[in-house]
């Protein structure tokens, strides 16, 4: 059976937000040497690869997603030599390194942009997207993701440049073959340094409809999405990247692809391997978005979650490979959003994440059951998106300040960006200095040192669940069949792998109430491989306790 290759299908990936992971030099910001210090912890957890959010040289307008030199490390995080050491030290422990690649835009402080804005005939002019104004206004009505128009006027040449995110993140012009050459050479340079893959930031947005039409108005601005999400030349560009770079290495790629659907995902990440290996879809994390997008206090609808996850499981089977995630650095904490902050709910989420088809991604701290920060004061926030949204939406009278604070407490990206809680010493052992963002005060109870010692901790449950997945390839490759579709509390499914005769039943109670489950007759007497409540061996019809989860093997 060829079911152990390629390596990334059978891998468990751990996402590191370097800024918040471990500080080694007391400046309050996590760094590469800090990651090296924690490699033994990561090896102990059992993960195969680390995806590092951007550590390239950057003015840090958007915490590194604004890159001013793709071939250097930001001094905040260390040096290129530190990066090389991290790659080596990780490899010694069998851990691979995936870097985050931001190709939709660079920083406005990148030498390309500094040149580009100088004059209309500068050789770098067409590295970015410049347009003249229309009747003294922006070239079109598109809004930027972090507020305001997506165009910024530059007096030097009396023209506007496009920035889908902040004005300090000008969009690169992928239509220009020179841009593609530069990018592909840079990627090759990193692969030759020994990295094992890339996560590609908003890669589904790099090809823009060259007509740049107005978008349908939503609130203050027009939605340009239809003209740049899954744009006209996206697959051509990715196939060129694959031909010229990716296909030459034994590496993995995962595209961050807002707008990916079960229908178009196989185009990006089909099993024929012509473009990327996997995509991150956003359907489940978008549940419940309202008129102000993600800024809502509504809890997600469980029936929708079940439907979306099942649709991806069955829809990609045999066509493409799923990436599985509950959260990342842009989302609230998993245990807070999908659970109730309790360790029990965090374990339930681990059971589910690690028993679906695809490659699971664990976001740093989720393996400890870290929760939202629930900041009470605006001054505690650091994130450009949160701060801009507060100003723009309250300023326009679309929401009151109190309501917006409530939205931020549940949805701000900073919830996931508070420092990893290592122990109960000051600042949770993250830094000897002042952390760049406040540590969640619950670190005295939720921290790695305490959890290492406690056999019933979330951390030890993650370890068990990762080991279980690795020992049962049916949990990785098996097909998925939804059970109890109409059940309003339980997400239950079967995983079967015909080649090996493996057959599993997984049940997860997503509610804080008891729930009855009918175990299919052929699972009577089945072995319980893991349960987040001690000592259960479900048989026949059982009652699942609040947030209970188990895996049975026939
Ligand atoms: O995020 C892109 C993205 O899809 C945004 O819509 C994202 O969901 C945003 O955080 C809104 O809440 C990527 C990165 O993951 C993010 O951290 C960056 O800020 C962004 O690209 C720009 O590079």
Write the layout of secondary structure elements.
Blueprint: E1 13-16, H1 18-21, H2 32-37, H3 39-45, E2 49-52, E3 56-57, E4 69-73, H4 80-92, E5 96-101, H5 111-116, E6 130-131, E7 151-154, E8 159-162, H6 177-192, E9 197-200, E10 216-218, E11 221-223, H7 225-228, H8 234-244, E12 252-256, H9 265-269, E13 278-280, H10 302-316, E14 323-324, H11 334-337, H12 343-353, E15 359-363, H13 384-395, H14 401-411, H15 448-453, H16 458-471, H17 473-477, E16 479-483, E17 490-497, E18 502-509, E19 515-518, E20 527-531, E21 541-544, E22 549-553
Parallel strand pairs: 1-2, 1-15, 2-5, 5-9, 9-12, 12-13, 14-15
Antiparallel strand pairs: 3-4, 6-8, 7-8, 10-11, 16-17, 17-18, 18-22, 19-21, 20-22
Helix pairs in contact: 12-16, 13-14
The chain binds 1-O-alpha-D-glucopyranosyl-D-fructose.
């Amino acid at each position: 059976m060829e079911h152990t290759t390629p390596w990334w299908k059978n891998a468990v990936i751990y996402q590191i937000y370097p800024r918040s992971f471990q500080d080694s030099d007391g400046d309050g910001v996590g760094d590469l040497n800090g990651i090296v210090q924690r490699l033994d912890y990561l090896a102990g957890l059992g993960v195969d690869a680390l995806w590092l959010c951007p550590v390239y040289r950057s003015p840090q307008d958007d915490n590194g997603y604004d890159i001013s030199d793709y071939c250097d490390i930001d001094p905040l995080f260390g040096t290129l030599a530190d990066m090389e050491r991290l790659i080596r030290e990780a490899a010694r422990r069998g851990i691979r390194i995936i870097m985050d690649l931001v190709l939709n835009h660079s920083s406005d402080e990148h030498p390309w942009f500094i040149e580009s804005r100088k004059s209309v005939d500068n050789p770098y002019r067409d590295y970015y997207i410049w347009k003249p104004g229309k009747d003294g206004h922006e070239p079109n009505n598109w809004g930027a993701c972090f507020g305001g128009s997506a165009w910024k006027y530059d007096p030097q040449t009396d023209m506007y440049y496009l920035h889908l995110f902040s004005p300090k993140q000008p969009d690169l012009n992928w239509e220009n073959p020179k841009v593609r050459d530069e990018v592909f050479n840079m990627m090759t340079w990193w692969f030759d340094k020994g990295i094992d893959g890339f996560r590609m930031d908003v890669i589904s947005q790099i090809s823009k409809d060259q007509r740049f039409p107005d978008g349908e108005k939503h609130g203050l601005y027009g939605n340009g999405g239809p003209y740049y999400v899954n744009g006209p030349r996206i697959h051509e560009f990715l196939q060129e990247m694959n031909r010229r770079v990716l296909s030459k290495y034994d590496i993995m790629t995962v595209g961050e692809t807002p707008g990916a659907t079960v229908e178009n995902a196989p185009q990006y990440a089909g099993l024929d391997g012509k473009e990327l290996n996997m995509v991150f879809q956003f359907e489940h994390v978008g549940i419940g978005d309202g008129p102000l997008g993600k800024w809502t206090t509504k809890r997600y609808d469980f029936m929708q979650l079940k439907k979306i996850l099942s649709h991806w499981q069955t829809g990609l089977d045999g066509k493409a490979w799923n990436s599985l995630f509950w959260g990342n650095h842009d989302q609230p904490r998993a245990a807070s959003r999908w659970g109730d902050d309790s360790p029990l709910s965090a374990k339930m989420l681990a059971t589910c994440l690690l028993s679906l088809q695809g490659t699971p991604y664990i976001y740093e701290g989720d393996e400890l059951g870290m929760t939202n920060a629930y900041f009470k004061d605006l001054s505690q926030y650091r994130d450009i998106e949160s701060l801009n949204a507060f100003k723009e939406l309250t300023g326009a009278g679309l929401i009151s300040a109190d309501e917006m604070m409530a939205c931020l407490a549940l949805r701000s990206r900073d919830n996931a960006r508070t420092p990893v809680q290592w122990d109960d010493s000051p600042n949770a052992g993250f830094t000897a200095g002042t952390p760049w963002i406040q540590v969640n005060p619950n670190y005295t109870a939720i921290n790695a040192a305490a959890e290492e010692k406690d056999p019933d901790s979330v951390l030890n449950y993650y370890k068990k669940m990762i080991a279980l997945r690795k020992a049962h390839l049916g949990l990785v490759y098996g097909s998925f069949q939804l059970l109890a579709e109409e059940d309003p509390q339980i997400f239950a499914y079967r995983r079967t792998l015909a080649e090996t005769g493996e057959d599993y039943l997984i049940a997860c109670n997503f509610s804080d109430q008891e729930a009855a489950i009918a175990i299919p007759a052929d699972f009577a007497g089945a072995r319980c491989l893991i349960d987040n409540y001690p000592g259960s061996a479900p048989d026949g019809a059982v009652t699942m306790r609040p947030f209970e989860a188990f895996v049975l093997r026939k």
